[in-house]
Amino acid sequence: MITLHEKLTKSVNRALSKGSIKAHARAIPQSIKLNSETVSITVDDGICTLSVSNHSVSFTLTSHWKSGSLYAHWIRLNKALIELDSLVCRTPNKEELAEAFGKSFLERLVAKGKVKPTKTTYKGK
Questions:
Q1: At the top level of its lineage, which domain of life is listed (predicted)?
Q2: Is residue 71 a contact partner of residue 61, using CB atoms and an 8 Å limit?
Q3: pLDDT digits (tens, 9 = 90+) for 3-54
């Protein structure tokens, strides 16, 4: 008998192997940069958590109408994978760069003309 974790792993692998997935039936496919080796899956009381390093996304599992067994509905799974991909692969904005690297880093970007100075540019450290 196949376990729930194995079933969810197969579902995640199948979704990620497509390269681009939809959030719902009529949505535009979005490309995913995650791979199945980096995504870890945990299940607790009908809640599935997908995580990569320090980022995680949770969604509820669906119960089969007849057998009662839990499975990942494709829309919920795809939405979670798209959200996780955006958390892991996104580029930080200038406020996050200023927080991470300090005010002097942002001043150098302004001096080089890479960022336009605004009232909020020098906010923070």
A1: Bacteria
A2: yes
A3: 999 999 999 999 999 989 999 888 899 888 888 889 999 999 999 999 998 8
- Give the CA distances from residue 11 to residues 1, 54, 88, 102, 122, in Å, rounded to whole numbers and listed in that order: 16, 22, 20, 42, 46
Instruction: Report the C-alpha gap between 26 and 121 in whole angstroms.
Output: 39
Q: Which residues contact 35 (CB under 8 A, 6 or more apart)?
A: 16
How many degrees, rounded to 5, is the angle at CA 64 between CA 45 and CA 74?
85
Please give the distance of CA 53 from its chain centroid, rounded to a whole number. Answer: 11
Q: Assess contact for 74 and 99: CB atoms under 8 A.
A: no
